[in-house]
Amino acid sequence: MNLVIIDYGMGNLKSLGSALKYLNVENVVISNDHKTIKEADKLLLPGVGSFVSAMNKIKDLSLDKTLDQVVLKDKKPILGICLGMQLLCNYSEEDGGAQGLGYVDAECRKFNEENLKVPHVGFNQVILNSNTKLYDGLNKENDFYFVHSYRLQSDENINQSYCNYKEDFIASFEQSNIIGTQFHPEFSQTNGLKVLKNFIGKF
Amino acid sequence: MAFSLDELIVLNASKDKKKIEEFAKTLERIVEDVFIPIAAGGGITSIEDAKLLFNSGADKLVLNSLLNNNQEIVRQIVKQYGSQSVIASIDYKTIDGNNVIFINDGKERVDMSLRQYIEHVQNLGVGELYLNSIDKDGTGFGYDFDTIDQVANSIKIPLIIAGGAGNESHLIEGLKREKVDAVATANLFNFVGNGLPNARKKIIEENLNIARWI
Questions:
Q1: Which residue, A190, A65, A119, is CA-closest to B60?
Q2: pLDDT tens across A38-54, in order?
Q3: Residues of B tagged active-site
Q4: Is the minimum CB–CB distance between A117 and chain B shorter than 8 Å?
Q5: For the structural domain made of A2-202, what CATH number should be given?
Q6: Separation CA A80–CA A16 (nearest Å)
Q7: How far apart are CA B119 and CA B126, in angstroms?
Q8: Domain B2-205 belongs to what topology?
Q9: Of residues A50, A32, A51, A48, the one with CA closest to residue A40
Q10: How far is A12 from chain B (nearest CA, A)?
Q11: Is this complex's ipTM strictly greater than 0.95?
């Protein structure tokens, strides 16, 4: 299997790479090359940092068009992690606001800061709404590692799982081949390794 | 050992000229086997240093002297990598009943009260605060809860307490405080026998808010 971690110059790709290595995934390529991405079996869209900067970098590299083809037409499984998950959605209000890739009908808004420490950092409990492939072998409630100031909201019923930080927010979604986790599986010990293993083996 | 932790902090404590390249190489090796966030720090003086450590696998940076010495670079790092990637580390000593801030490995005093300094670093946009009592550090006698309780209310970002933990009861005492988000330990008990896994087990038995793994 050929797994490509999309490198658009934001965030730490090393941890994700070493988690996949630990899971014995043979062909892991970190790349922003269009041909490589088109030939991938599965894609990972990681990312830490600002939504606007990330979208700008994706557009500068014309990765948005390539992703449209690979994700929407070819239906290759893609897992967006943290900012990567947010980028798969319509819009974020971060830094004055920007459009995302628009594959999932959801928007990112900042946590209401009153009496709340933002960013939301650390392990927190993720509660599943439904049994899904992504959480195979895990419990109904599992701890995962979060670090984010913006959280996903949607009018659509896409919250496969949710997390509570003074309010419920979407912790992950699974829309056929398009999957996103607000938490970082690569930093979530054995729980996270299971999620990554499920993404690799079951999609 | 890493399987008992939520996060790992790796500090370059070499006292002579801090060789950040060597430290970055060490970091790269650590990242390969650790599936929790790694915060790295010690001797970061420029945006290039920050970039090097992030590229070597750091998920967060721990900044200390830079918070006082060059606010502009701190702001740049925050802007580029996000506030969630920056931990402000504050070292203080209690002298004649006053908490005095020290930077540069405890060698240089900062002319600001602890409260003022906490406000100062929060204004730089950092994401977390790592509060270390130099007096307690290495003693194993427990955290400096007097000071922690005094200043906790002025802290608006996640607070990690450090300095003094010597056994699991200290960790539990810290985690029971509403304003304390995390407890850090570099004590010997981490490295002897099953010190850390046992501590984690006891914290879970106390029903404190800590992650459970399958």
A1: A119
A2: 999 999 999 877 899 89
A3: 91
A4: yes
A5: 3.40.50.880
A6: 12
A7: 11
A8: TIM Barrel (3.20.20)
A9: A32
A10: 6
A11: no
